[in-house]
Amino acid sequence: MLLAAALLTFLLSRQPVEFPAHLGWPLLAFIAWTLLSILFSQDPLSGLLYLRKVFLFFILVLVYNAYRHHRHLWLALKGIIIAGAVAALYGIGQFIYAYLNLKRQGRPFYENYVLHQASGFMSHWLTFSGQLMMVLLLTVSLLLFCRSIRFRLLWWLCAVAMSLGILAAFTRGIWLATLAGIVYLLARFQRRLLWLLPVAVLLLYLISPSWLEKRFQSIADLQTDSSNLSRPVMLRTGWEMIRAHPWFGVGPGRVEVEFLLYKPSSLPLPKAWYGHLHNSYIQFAAERGIPCLMIWLWILFEVFRVNLSLARKPYGEAQALGHAGIAITLGIMVSGLFEFNVGDSEILMLYLFVIASSYAWVRLEQESWKVPEKKWAETNEFGLVNQPGLET
User: Fold this and answer.
1) Are 301 and 22 in contact (CB under 8 A)?
2) pTM of the full predicted structure?
3) Which of 200, 262, 272, 255 shows the shortest CA–CA distance to 237?
């Protein structure tokens, strides 16, 4: 509702509407192929419900056009960091409450907590931790590459709170995705600091309580962890869907309905939720076809390209924003191996806002370059302003 109100306000302002360069064609292709996959599915009417996610992509247009100064953009990003820290603190509070409550009842903590983990202000812990991952990487990039930032202690405290919130959410895929983003940021900041990461992970593992240690170990548990056992079944079923419908898939929203039709009968069905395939790449190919997956990768390539150009800037804010865009996209890609993360509207909205901020920064830079050129064009060779009817 607020996005619709913001778009309406922007249109009523009669400002010229522009679209991020090089991102328009892949986005139009992505939306068009989604429409085609709906039309070619067995139940097009049910697929129309998924068009509401297309509306979220207007965030790119709104953010790209709305800001008139770099400092306004940074204020919005800093506001997101503060909101992320507040959400993390609330999630930590949920974790502490669950821990104390289970201890008071004499019930084992790990076995009961994994059934309902800390989710902050969101409805699910995967959404909560996915948002925290993006905001944490933005914060770390700001601290590493923007040396002129004020109140550094405050931002470090926000980063610590979000790190603890991600740990409290118990989402292993997000742990790996956050690690990938941090590795990139440290490699671009000072490569010699990379050795600190394995030391920090090992130290965290050694000092962690038994329940956190058990969660770490469950990443490689292929015998008893139902989540791990269900992943190969989903991948194999998704592959069968792709083989049967390589061009347009089974249609958005049809994976859950048709899952059992494509699951090989020889495979067991571990206890898990099979509403989607828990993998962004397999999900796009299975429900919308291989071309749609290629188009999505095209979008990510364009995001990398514009953020790499920003990351090469010699000054703080632009460089920090460019590196943040790359690290966050890497995190989205890594976590997409374990979850259909961009199918979650709350994660998609925040991701679109962050990458649109990079494009908006580039637009504002280009506009600032045009101002001196315009002023020069309005003056003569003597430095006097050219005015109609004025002889020089």
Assistant:
1) no
2) 0.92
3) 262
Tell me 384's DSSP state.
P
At residue 220, the pLDDT reads 87
Q: In the chain, where are the structural domains located?
A: 20-366
Give the closest residue to 259 by CA, choosing from 290, 278, 238: 238
Please choose, from the candidates 135, 124, 234, the residue with its C-alpha nearest in 3D space to the C-alpha of residue 171: 124
Half-sphere exposure of 207 (CA within 13 A, CB side): 5
Helix, strand, coil % in the chain, rounded to nearest 5: 75, 0, 25
DSSP per residue over 165-234, as a string? HHHHHT-HHHHHHHHHHHHHHHHHH-GGGGGHHHHHHHHHHHHS-HHHHHHHHGGG--SS-HHHHHHHHH
pLDDT digits (tens, 9 = 90+) for 111-168: 999 989 999 999 999 999 999 999 999 999 999 998 888 889 999 999 999 999 999 9
Q: How far is CA 315 from CA 29, 145, 311, 329, in A?
A: 35, 8, 9, 22
Length of the chain: 392
- Contact between 331 and 342 under an 8 Å Cβ cutoff? The reply is no
**Inter-residue contact 238 to 282 (CB < 8 Å):** yes
pLDDT on residue 64: 94
Q: Among 391, 364, 365, 366, which residue's Cα sits nearest to residue 380?
A: 391
Q: Is 145 exposed, middle or buried (0-12, 13-18, 19+ CB in 10 A)?
A: buried
Question: C-alpha dihedral over 274, 275, 277, 279, to 10 degrees?
Answer: -130
Average pLDDT over residues 253-281: 94
Residue type, 190: Q
DSSP codes, 262-296:
HS-TTS---SS--SS-S-HHHHHHHHH-HHHHHHH
Which residues make beta-bridge pairs with 385? 379
Residues near 212 by Cβ (< 8 Å), separated by ≥ 6? 167
Query: pLDDT tens digits, residue range 351-377?
Result: 999 999 999 999 998 887 765 544 444
- CB count, 10 Å around CB of 234? 23
Residue type, 268: P
Instruction: Write the CB contacts of 392 (distance below 8 Å, at least 6 apart in sequence).
Output: 380, 382, 384, 386
- Per-residue pLDDT, 84: 98
3-state secondary structure of 246: coil
Asked if residues 316 and 146 have their Cβ atoms less than 8 Å apart, the reply is yes
